[in-house]
Structures are given as structure tokens and as C-alpha cells.
Amino acid sequence: MSISTTLQDCLSRKGSQYDIVHHAHTHSTSETAQVAHVPGDRLAKTVLLADERGYVAAVLPSTFRLDMSELRDTTGRDLELVREAELSALFQDCEIGAVPPVGMAYGMQTYLDESLAMQPDIYFEAGDHEDLIHMRTEQFLNLMDKAERGSFAHRWST
């Protein structure tokens, strides 16, 4: 596959400057970070949720877990995780589990965890399990300018 068409259009419309990092096929964000030699705090993952009003994307570092109660406080919505079976219909130009963070380009409200704004650069899935987009944080925040920002994730405890 490679970069999803929707993501490519979004990057182009925003005039984003980025690099593509190709890596061996992976099955999880932690594996991707390891194989691509990317710090997990800089690898953004997208978690999809829904309620009766529709779908929502939450974007957070791969080393963090989503705090559902804090996300509910941030959004004012009673959101539940979306089942993997629904993902292919929502992100037709992406492989399951390789969803880029630009939920707004797919017509859904997107929330960005503030912790990503503290990183010097960001990596994220390009739509497949073998390519990452890499960009400076200022470019990423420009790309995500329609996302609402909040604090709704915490580092995984070991």
C-alpha cells in the first residue's frame, strides 16, 4: 500500500514538509517504534471511538494509554472504543491498525493529546504497516490545526 490517498491529499493541502520512514512490516505501535528506531513518545497512535453522534479519533503517543474518563470530560461525550471490524469501512484507503492521525480528513472530530506537542518531532502511520510519516512538531500541529487539544492520556505504567 504506502501513504493513504486521504492522508496524501491532506499533507498536500497543508503544504506539509515531511519525510517517509520505511520499515519492515509490523503488527503493533510498540513493534513499529522498535523496528523503525523511533522513540515511542514521538510515535503518534490513533484510537477510534464512537457514540450515537458518530465517530471520534483520539491521537496520543504510542507509549501512553487513553484515559476514557478524561476523554469523556474533554469531549462531553460517552465514547466507546470502535471494534476493529468497523475500521475498514471508515478508513478504506488504510490497512487495519495503520490509521493516520488526520481523523478530520475522514470527516470525524479529532482530539490531540497535549503531550505530543512537547516532542521535537512526530512520527505516525501513513496508512500501511511499513511506512511512517516523520515531521517537525510545528508541521504536525499545523496539520492537526482542526483537532481539539486536551490531556486525556497517561504513560503506560510497568
TrEMBL record:
InterPro entries according to UniProt = YbaK/aa-tRNA-synt-asso_dom_sf (IPR036754), YbaK/aa-tRNA-synth-assoc-dom (IPR007214)
Q: Does the keyword Ligase apply?
A: yes
Q: Name one Pfam family in it.
A: tRNA_edit
Domain YbaK/aminoacyl-tRNA synthetase-associated residue range list: 23-142
Instruction: Return one GO MF term.
Output: aminoacyl-tRNA deacylase activity
Going by the UniProt record, its keywords in alphabetical order are: Aminoacyl-tRNA synthetase, Ligase
Q: Which PANTHER family match?
A: CYTOPLASMIC PROTEIN (PTHR30411), MULTIFUNCTIONAL SER_THR-TRNA DEACYLASE PROXP-Y (PTHR30411:SF9)
Name listed for the protein in its UniProt record = YbaK/prolyl-tRNA synthetase associated region
Recite the lineage of the species. Bacteria, Pseudomonadati, Pseudomonadota, Betaproteobacteria, Neisseriales
